[in-house]
Amino acid sequence: MTISCYGAPSHQHIKDSIMSSMSSFSSELSNLPKKPIPGQYGLPFIGAIKDRWDYFYNEGKDEFFENRRRKYHSTVFRTNMPPGPFISPDSKVVCLLDAVSFPILFDMSKVEKLNVLDGTYHPSWSFTGGYRVCAYLDPSEPKHTSLKSYFMSIIAARHDNFIPLFQQCLYDLFFELESQITTKKHSSFNSLSDKMSFNYVFRLFCDKNPNETKVGSNGANLFDKWLLCQLAPLGTLGILPKFLNLLEDLLLHTFLLPFFLVKSDYYKLYDTFYKSASSILDEAENLGIKRDEACHNLVFLAGFNAYGGMKATFPMLIKWVGLAGEKLHRQLANEIRTVVKAEGGVTISSLEKMSLTKSVVYEALRIEPPVPFQYGRAKEDIVIQSHDAAFEIKKGEMIFGYQPFATKDPKIFEKPEQFVANRFVGEGERLLKYVYWSNGRQTENPTAENKQCPGKDLVVLLCRVMLVEFFLRYDTFRIEARTSTFGSIVTFKSITPKATTT
């Protein structure tokens, strides 16, 4: 990993580069040669199994895509995506790896998002109470509009609570973090962050502490098991000796894990939300949504979208800031403390004035998008364009985008593999249109008619608040980090409290 705090290009260079590229893009793309999509799927069944083994065991995720990009000399190609047989009815995809072709996956007039949340398969609807919840619906389905409008309204109604409630939850996290470092000389940030995230989400939607319910302090664990059973086909344990790969592949990637493994856990969560979120469910009934359907959707929103998103995002953010080192920490602390003092507190207005803090959050989302995969099925014959060529995708073909490659496109971003903290400061903000992390561009907004995350702006806000509250309290910190199948694992090794002045 290469990290730079000062290594961003000059603002004038960024401006000139962006304006030049934008003005030439349209004319260049319209004149691109039309080529057949390279790549192959291999023999039926065997080809999908081979690609699955390459993806999980022989090559690894990033190398799987990079090797094929080099082999075909193209950022658009055909391949199979896991899990394949016997879970996926069809594993064939057209893969997109560049920033120009990728946004076709956000165009609801060209692609269908029916049951593609998890890719080429979907878990049993038993995991969501027998309902196809909003995340699996295409915007063309009337129920999608009503459910997503409902989600957006309940999130908006709680906007006054976003910052103060998160500050309370962060206070508990920091207390436990300090206590563990003092007693054990290290602290697992992920477990603390997961606990804090569940508490925040539950209190935001239910207006009570989960410890006052039968879920108690176990909410994060219950959601983790529920998530794991649905997403297991997309991951690998990564800790087994190679001779056990066949056993792991059989257990995780060949058959779906059954709902009964987590049935009691799920319904404990469902019953708790049903009793604790009565005002939200009342609102759903007023909108014509059945109460039990609304509750299953609420559990999914809280567990898969909100908690699951925070579970991936917060450790990722702390990892990149931690690895950047003390120089960036001093910069952030200075900006944050100066603005908070001048503004008289942590508010939406004060957060907007912290240009470096904002840039750091965007850069973290760029370099390691919390959700790396996007899928959509072509509604019609369409022509897509990469930087170098145009390609025709036939109606019904599955399109897959690997987001970390698109957001590290070297033809868009200088030093794309580096964490450049001030990349999006000043004129660099123009590059935000190429930051894809929320099933849409950072510069676009979720609506009831698209599939962009309804809590997109809340995620950005909470990431900023986390950095602000952290550097109001601490000067610097040191971590160790590693990457697992489903995100970053962060361990705090030391933390330096804010120096007192006399």
UniProtKB/TrEMBL annotation:
<dbReference type="GO" id="GO:0005506">
    <property type="term" value="F:iron ion binding"/>
</dbReference>
<dbReference type="GO" id="GO:0020037">
    <property type="term" value="F:heme binding"/>
</dbReference>
<dbReference type="GO" id="GO:0016705">
    <property type="term" value="F:oxidoreductase activity, acting on paired donors, with incorporation or reduction of molecular oxygen"/>
</dbReference>
<dbReference type="InterPro" id="IPR001128">
    <property type="entry name" value="Cyt_P450"/>
</dbReference>
<dbReference type="InterPro" id="IPR002403">
    <property type="entry name" value="Cyt_P450_E_grp-IV"/>
</dbReference>
<dbReference type="Pfam" id="PF00067">
    <property type="entry name" value="p450"/>
</dbReference>
<dbReference type="InterPro" id="IPR036396">
    <property type="entry name" value="Cyt_P450_sf"/>
</dbReference>
<dbReference type="GO" id="GO:0016829">
    <property type="term" value="F:lyase activity"/>
</dbReference>
<dbReference type="GO" id="GO:0016125">
    <property type="term" value="P:sterol metabolic process"/>
</dbReference>
<keyword id="KW-0349">Heme</keyword>
<dbReference type="GO" id="GO:0006631">
    <property type="term" value="P:fatty acid metabolic process"/>
</dbReference>
<keyword id="KW-0479">Metal-binding</keyword>
<protein>
    <recommendedName>
        <fullName>Allene oxide synthase 3-like</fullName>
    </recommendedName>
</protein>
<keyword id="KW-0408">Iron</keyword>
<keyword id="KW-0456">Lyase</keyword>
<comment type="similarity">
    <text>Belongs to the cytochrome P450 family.</text>
</comment>
<dbReference type="GO" id="GO:0004497">
    <property type="term" value="F:monooxygenase activity"/>
</dbReference>
<feature type="binding site" description="axial binding residue">
    <location>
        <position position="453"/>
    </location>
    <ligand>
        <name>heme</name>
    </ligand>
</feature>
